[in-house]
Design goal:
The chain is an alpha/beta fold and 420 residues long. The protein has helices at 19-27, 75-78, 83-99, 103-106, 121-134, 143-147, 151-159, 175-188, 205-208, 210-213, 251-257, 285-298, 316-329, 342-345, 352-366, and strands spanning 4-12, 34-35, 48-49, 111-116, 166-169, 194-201, 242-250, 263-272, 307-309, 337-339, 386-387, 398-405, 409-416.
């Protein structure tokens, strides 16, 4: 069994498209919410979203997209991309550069890639619309490749010539937590020496408004308070998109390359609620089990955790279920610092677990813990938890990150500082 280290990160997110900007946003509680132009129409009850900045990917034709020049791609490559694939590609380029990987490190049978994405509902809808209007054989043959749930894997495996393990995960908001946990298993069991883990999502009208039908979204028109996890009067989550990459490497590879390490993944757990197709178990049953499994896997105790990045999407049911689960796991008054960074980033759905795990690594690397923003009145059920509302200049030794998704899927991941 090998130890598993994080050697590279890449961010395309609502709060920044590089590490320095993301760190500044987290430290100073700068959110990425705005009155999103595509939502400012009468038929949309939702007005606020947290889109990626510096990218214009509204066109259905990728050749019309604008994005930072350093990521410029050839036309034939872009033809099979949807917006979130572009985000994922850019984040992977960042992570490769940070990790100092050579082409031979990336393309070999012992380097793999696990991804998480729901696909592009917008591109899928448009391709079917064109098919019905123009005829089956008059459509772009790459429409399916660019739109279905595996598109991130298809495109990045091809572009970067990945030869190792590859697959995509689709468990809603727990997707990238599963991708990260299973990638960790591949490296520590020495089945792969390196794994890229990527989460990515579109952020457009089509990816956002279906959640309004579920009464899951915040209907606030104020970007400064629309997302407020753990607040007594929280309304729902604010949608986001983007792409995040984390590189996991074995201890042997870290030593061979003389690579810098930013944190160590030491254990994870998963469990299901077995309760409802869309909402969490009222007592957070599955999340409790996932946290217990993570502690057992990591061989540490709850009191070792210094900071917990909660799933807490700002929904009435979801936040309460997680609060009750955490109260069962952590003794009253002595638990870890807790925050939900979705108050800043918005909820990136299948990319959220990886984004939040990457934020945990930034906490180690930069010596701070991000606060839980926008709380005006703390929900009374959370009174005994140490929910911090400002960022703290501390560096915990152990950090936990939780995620929950549709169908009661739950993941919990534990990271250790490389100081240990």
């Amino acid at each position: 069994m090998s130890r598993v280290f994080v050697t590279g990160l890449g961010f395309i997110s609502s709060i920044g498209n590089d590490e320095a900007t993301v760190v500044d946003s987290l430290r100073n509680l700068k959110h990425g919410m705005e009155l999103f132009p595509p939502l400012q129409v009468p038929e949309s009850p939702v007005k606020v979203a947290a889109p990626v900045k510096e990218f214009d990917v509204e066109s259905y034709d990728p050749e019309d997209w604008t994005y930072p020049a350093e990521y410029k791609l050839r036309r034939e490559t872009l033809r099979s991309f949807s917006p979130h694939v572009l985000y994922a590609y850019c984040s992977m380029k960042q992570a490769i550069e940070q990790a100092g990987l050579e082409t031979s490190d990336i393309s070999n049978p012992e380097t793999g890639i696990y991804t998480a994405s729901a696909g592009s509902s917008r591109f899928l809808h448009k391709s079917l619309e064109k098919m019905y209007a123009r005829g089956i054989m008059r459509c772009n043959p790459l429409n399916i490749v660019s739109s279905v749930a595996g598109t991130v894997s298809f495109n990045l495996v091809s572009y970067f010539q990945i030869q190792g393990f590859s697959t995509g995960f689709a468990s809603a908001c727990a997707s990238s937590g599963h991708a990260l946990g299973f990638a960790f298993d591949e490296v520590r069991r020495e089945r792969q020496k390196r794994m890229f883990v990527i989460g990515a999502e579109d952020c457009n009208f089509d990816s956002i408004v279906p959640f309004a039908v579920m009464r899951a979204l915040s209907l606030s028109k104020d970007p400064d308070t629309a997302a407020r996890p753990f607040d007594k009067n929280r309304q729902g989550f604010v949608s986001s998109g983007g792409g995040v990459t984390m590189i996991l490497e074995s201890e042997e590879e870290v030593t061979r390359r003389g690579a810098s390490t930013y944190g160590e993944l030491i254990g994870w757990g998963q469990a299901s609620d077995g309760y409802n197709v869309a909402i969490s178990h009222p007592d957070g049953r599955g999340l409790q089990a996932a946290m217990k499994a993570a502690f057992k896997d990591a061989n540490i105790e709850p009191e070792n955790i210094g900071y917990l990045n909660a799933h807490a999407p700002s929904t009435p049911i979801g936040d309460l279920a997680e609060v009750l689960a955490m109260k069962e796991i952590f003794p009253s008054g002595s638990g870890p610092m807790i925050s939900s960074t979705k108050a800043l980033t918005g909820h990136g759905l299948s990319l959220s677990s990886l984004l939040e795990s990457s934020i945990c690594i930034l906490a180690f690397k930069h010596g701070f813990v991000p606060g839980s923003a926008h709380i005006q009145e703390l929900m009374p059920e959370a009174d005994s938890l140490n929910i911090i509302q400002t960022s703290r200049e501390v560096q915990p030794d152990y950090i936990m990150s939780n995620s929950s998704g549709f169908g009661g899927a739950n993941t919990s991941l534990i990271f250790r500082s490389c100081r240990n």
